[in-house]
Amino acid sequence: MKFGNRIVMKFGGSCLRDLESFHRISDILKGYSQNELVLVSSALYGVTNSLIDLANTAEKHSVDLDKELNSIADKHTSLLEKVIKNDLKETALDEIRREISELEIALKDIWDYGLKPQKLDLVSSFGERLSTIILQRYLEAEGYRTVYVSSYDLIFTTGEPQNALPILERTEQRVKERILPLLSEGKIPVVTGFYGRDAQGNVTLLGRGGSDFTATILAYCLKNENIEVRVILWKDVDGLLTANPKLEPSAHLIRDISYSEAKELAFFGAKLLHPLCVFPVERKEIPVEIRNFETLKPDRYTRISKGVKTKESVVKAIADMKNVNMITVEGEAMVSRPGTAAKLFDLMGKNNVNIIMISQSSSENNITFLVSDEDKNKAIKALNWSPFFGKEWVNIEMEDDVGLLSIVGAGMKNTCGVAGRIFSALGSARVNIRAIAQGSSELNISLVVSREDLQRAVQAIHKEFNLREDEEEH
Ligand code: ASP
Ligand code: MG
Fold first, then answer.
1. For ligand 1, is residue 195 a contact (CB within 6 Å)?
2. Is there an atom of ligand 1 within 6 Å of 48 CB?
3. Can you give the pLDDT at residue 389?
4. How many structural domains compose the chain?
5. What is the pLDDT of residue 382?
6. Ligand 2 centroid from CA 209, angstroms
7. Dist. CA 394–CA 365, nearest whole Å
8. Domain limits at 345?
9. Does any ligand 1 atom lie closer than 6 A to the CB of residue 208?
10. Does residue 306 fall inside a structural domain?
11. Among 20, 293, 439, 451, which one is most buried in terms of CB atoms within 10 A?
12. With a 6 A CB cut-off, is 272 part of the ligand 1 pocket?
């Protein structure tokens, strides 16, 4: 048994590039050698997207399967050739060949029988299956006692294709059975990120960027009263920022952030974190660090934890979403009619439309909600076809020239005047607010503005609340 903590580390695709980056991983592990370690690997950069394309084009017979399979195989074998020099290279090559031939079978199935949602999940999981072989065998060749573990054997899910949720109790039991013995033998499990399995035994994905989620799920399962657990997500940035740097060049690193604030940011488009990955760690108060793999600066990182340091400023960060569309359903028929909102959201749910934000006017004659570009046509079609909303006396309007900004901060709670400051800052910047919503948690205020005003709005609020880096170190 080691004396340190237990740490679950996730390496993103940008950490798995070349010999230098693999050496860097090995160096990082040396620095944490007093701890029990569990590693989670994402796919190599770009591979998940290629696999999804491949599944879709195989269904349409519009791809040269052999050629694409070869190119995926080459990408992995050529990296392997660079990073492993001893006889483990042959072992790893065999393992890669085996995965590629399983992938081929799955793709031929799609070619012959069409793309069922479960098949898309299966094909997408190969990115992690392949990358984890390379990482595990590389570390073994470097002398680490590592073991490859497929998350298929660890994570039980609810089963919705592409976006399944973990069933934490069952998963916890399994993770303890499989992982604890390895740790007590001093081994390092190297786990495939991104997927688990449902009750029928299908591979199910945890959503895009799901390896973060894998890491936090494992941390949840491995935490008990007697041991401290930490998660480190190695990425290609320092951490969470006060705003999108493309819109606000003076955006700063957030050094400390609470679980609830991080959840809001992850949800509202801070693409850096899987939107649900904070939930499991919050439940057991496990701290998460987001660290920069490129620069390895020991003191520049984001820590997500329970404690929030109070800053002068009540606002912590501004998240933005550019590709959103505002749909307004309006009509006298909706006034004082219980069940209208339920009908509307039920209809959207049944059509797989994800609702990003909702706002209703007090006159009750309209409901406004936001959907992504991906969902907008589905939403409009469902409304027009609906016997209730499609009627002439309900007017349906879509505005596709809007953007959303969400102002997040636990300090907004019980602080008077925050909304007032936001509105006057936007007024002075000549930004017109087209819809507003505030969550009852008072952790965020979300505003819809014209897309062309989005940048000006973000900058005005960043300036008004003087968002800057915490002076104190962790
Ligand atoms: N490879 C998966 C994706 O691209 C999961 C991850 O990167 O975390 O979504
Ligand atoms: Mg990724």
1. no
2. yes
3. 86
4. 2
5. 95
6. 5
7. 10
8. 317-464
9. yes
10. no
11. 293
12. no
What is the model's pLDDT at position 148?
A: 98
308-317 pLDDT per residue, tens: 655 555 899 9
Residue 176 lies in a domain: yes
Parts of the chain with a pLDDT under 50 = 1
The pLDDT score that the predictor gives to residue 410 is 87
For 100-194, strand residue ranges (E) read 146-149, 188-192
Closest Cα to atom 7, ligand 1: which residue? Answer: 209
Any ligand 1 atom below 6 A from CB of 51: no
Phi-psi region of 197 (alpha: psi -120 to 50; beta: other; left: phi over 0): beta
Domain stop point among 208, 236, 264: 236
Residue 42 CA to ligand 2 center (angstroms) comes to 6
Q: Record the tokens describing residue 237, joined without a space.
A: 């940035």
Last residue in a domain, options 236, 266, 288: 236
The pLDDT score that the predictor gives to residue 434 is: 93
Residue 128 is assigned to a structural domain of this protein: yes
Q: How many CB atoms lie within 10 A of CB 83?
A: 25
Cα(211) to ligand 1 centroid in Å equals 6
pLDDT at 474: 66
Of 286, 298, 301, give the one whose Cα is nearest residue 254: 301
Secondary structure (DSSP) of 159-176: --SSB--B-HHHHHHHHH
> How many Å apart are CA 302 and CA 442, to the nearest integer?
23
The answer, yes or no, to whether any atom of ligand 1 lies below 6 A from the CB of 209, is yes
- Do residues 229 and 323 both lie within one domain? no
Distance CA 36, CA 48 (A): 29
Residue with tokens 């998460």: 288
Neighbours of 85 (CB within 10 A): 10
